[in-house]
Design a protein that fits this description.
Distance between the termini: 30 Å
Strand content: 15-25%
Strand order of the largest sheet: 1-2
Structural class: alpha+beta
Radius of gyration: 13 Å
Number of domains: 1
Oligomer: single chain
Largest sheet: 2 strands, antiparallel
CATH architecture: Roll
Number of strands: 6
Number of helices: 3
Length: 86
């Protein structure tokens, strides 16, 4: 995967999340993810993350990637900082 492919993957994830394609969005994450907000929640499984995606209380979802904080090593691993807007 190239850096551009990584960015395209993140864009697809954001679009799926916004369109409430929750199963597809969760599929971008490893089954044993480490995902969290330092003050609100932490998840260690894709199933728990999917529950977060689905429990959006009806608010519109949008994801804003902070492009300067993308880290991509060329391996199957990368990380990106984002702000989840409602």
């Amino acid at each position: 995967m190239t850096k551009d492919e990584f960015k395209n993957m993140l864009d697809s994830l954001a679009a799926d999340w916004a369109q409430r394609k929750n199963d597809k969005a969760a599929g971008f994450f490893a089954s044993d993810i480490k995902y969290g907000d330092p003050t609100r929640y932490q998840f260690t499984s894709r199933a728990d993350l999917l529950a977060l995606f689905k429990n959006d209380e009806g608010y519109d979802q949008r994801t804003i990637w902070k492009l300067r904080n993308h880290q991509f090593t060329g391996s199957p691993m990368g990380k990106a900082q984002y702000r989840r807007g409602v």
